[in-house]
Design brief:
Rossmann fold; 6-stranded mixed β-sheet; 4-stranded antiparallel β-sheet; ABC transporter transmembrane region fold; alpha/beta
Amino acid sequence: MTAFDPRLPRYARAARGCLVLTIVFGLAATALVLAQAGLLAHALAAAARGTGVSALKGTLVALLLVLAGRAAVTYGGEVAALRAAARVKSQLRRGLGGKALRLGPSWLAGQRAGEITTLATSGLDALDAYFAKYLPQLVLACLVPLAVLVRVTAADWISGLIIAVTLPLVPLFMILIGSYSKARTQRQWQLLARLGGHFLDVVEGLPTLKAFGRARAQAEVIRTVTDEHRTASMAALRITFLSALVLELAAALATALVAVEVGLRLLAGHIGYETALLVLLLTPEAYLPLRNVGAQFHASAQGTEAARHALDILDQEEPDRPGAGSAAAGKAVPGKAVPGKAVPGKKADLRRQPITLTDVTLAYPGRPAAALDGISLTISPGERVLLAGPNGAGKSSLLGLLLRFCDPTAGRIDVGATDLRDIPVSSWRRQIAWVPQHPYLFAGTVADNIALGDSHASPAAIRRAARLAGAEEFIEALPGGFSAALTERALTLSAGQRQRIALARAFLRNAPLVLLDEPAAHLDPPAARQLIAVIETLLADRTVVLVSHSQQAGVAADRILRLDHGRLVPASRPALTASP
């Protein structure tokens, strides 16, 4: 990451104000540094000549005011930077969350959720040091040395020449050390992200690990990753301390060189006492911001690395953005935008328009075989399609295409006469109700989880949807009924109960296209027959695509499609009737 990533103001508006405030405070601090040195040199020189305190009263008061001003500027700059950092972190976190939602499950499937969690929490928290320490010092490192050099040169050109020659050595050493430490910092961040991601995975899978006796082995893995992170952190600290030593040594030698030549010329009477004092007071100030920015660079390195990763995610193309249409259907990659154009006002009407797949192929990066291979079919409005096939046949991938979680690698999908990728994802998904095989329930009330199907639904509509899904009885038995609080994933409920709540969501959503992935997989036979009867009655006027491992799904289907290794194969019988 550069000194100030130009992408940051684009995604975090607070960064713009922070940069402006930092520059303003830097200019004020520079002026105060010069004023302090001039006043102090004048006071000391006057005192050496025997001037009384009363005569220096004005100078001393001005000096005290300048010192107070420097303290206020430093404090105000740090407070403003910390507040800006808090807003920047908040904006970046909201941006990451929104970006992940827009990129969808196909993109998220290629990521480690724990690493993204670490990035959005402790990773971005490290930006405090970047905004409150590094940026202010970076501005001072650009302004103060130049101002000091001009002022010293105006007072004594010989000292100014020595400072001009030695000053570039400090940033040169900083660049050399920074280039060496960059790889260490990246490794430290990667290990922290790996540690956070692995720890989250272990916590989520702890019941399974305990059941199979693998908890101790995973504890050893966490210990190993923790030791690697500790080693990387200590290596980064060693570089920090060594760089501080190098920068301090270079600055000390340069200051000593100026002090020696000024002292010799002062003894020879070639330079005035007040001028000599001014040069000696200003010389350390020329190197101090450079030394400080070197130290703060290492302190903020983790934050800058985390921000770089966050900005890389935010820079990824989205299907809804311009450049994500159908012009290059043959070059699409799941989870990534397709070059072309999206038409913001383009809409589809699934109650009247058919969905047509033409030679659709879907290949996931890193997999040897395509998940779908040359699929061609048409789903008519109001049709019930049973999609059958064994595990790994491509059923979920076909649902993923219809949900716009991914785009075809080859071929095209049309809605009526419109390419699906020309339709904004948000308007397309508003016409779909989806019940996955393993539904996700969020922390909140039962009613809130059902209302995901329609955020404006009334309590009566929510209750009716639950009744249709066969969930009302067990919900009423919960403490609080529909107001009962569920934990994340609702692990206190059985798999069948979670499935019923997910079905209630779908029933609440008045969507013309309903996608059901094994809706009765976790239900007992009587409940499954009841559910199938409800589906046939309630969804009579909607297009339904039902996924099942078996063709004996118990639902009356207009057509049976069987997938095998990503290809459509003939079904054993043309249609199904409802089971008794």
